[in-house]
């Protein structure tokens, strides 16, 4: 009957387990940096009228630290990012719309739509490039 020495196999398994733990720990740091960088890039790219959109951009990290969601909490954030089609605006609670520069109250307004002003997608694109480079370096060093 053939006899096998598993000492080397066990040694390699332990090295892989140690490297995996180190890669995971370093990856959490990269994810955290990427999340914060994404917010910073988006805030720099976001158009500023009142500053509300820019101030509403934030990040939430997953419980395990290996993922995140970043974006605005301002309800119109997607309209700025992607633009809007022409649409009709009607009053919700009153009989007419009015604003300080209006000549008279209006029953409806034909809005021409807005052009997209991307700020999140370019921020994610830039942060993703940095993330990929950092993770590649971690993996090269680990194995």
Brief account:
The chain has 143 residues and is mainly alpha-helical.
Secondary structure layout:
Layout: H1 7-45, H2 52-56, E1 57-61, E2 68-72, H3 77-82, E3 87-89, E4 109-111, H4 120-142
Antiparallel strand pairs: 1-2, 3-4
Can you walk me through this structure?
The protein has 143 residues and is mainly alpha-helical. It has a domain at 8-80 and 116-142. It has four helices and four strands. The strands form two sheets. A two-stranded antiparallel ribbon has the order 1-2. Helix 1 runs antiparallel to helix 4. The longest helix is centred in the N-terminal third of the chain and has 39 residues, at 7-45. The radius of gyration is 25 Å and the shape is rod-shaped. It comes from Sphaerisporangium siamense. This is HK97 gp10 family phage protein.
Order of helices and strands: HHEEHEEH
The low-confidence parts are none
Strand tally:
4
The largest beta-sheet arranges its strands as: 1-2
What is the subunit arrangement here? single chain
**Taking all residues together, what is the mean pLDDT?**
94
- Helical content (DSSP H or I, runs of 4+): 40-55%
Could you describe the largest sheet, including whether it forms a barrel?
A: 2 strands, antiparallel
- The N- and C-terminal alpha carbons lie at a distance of 35 Å
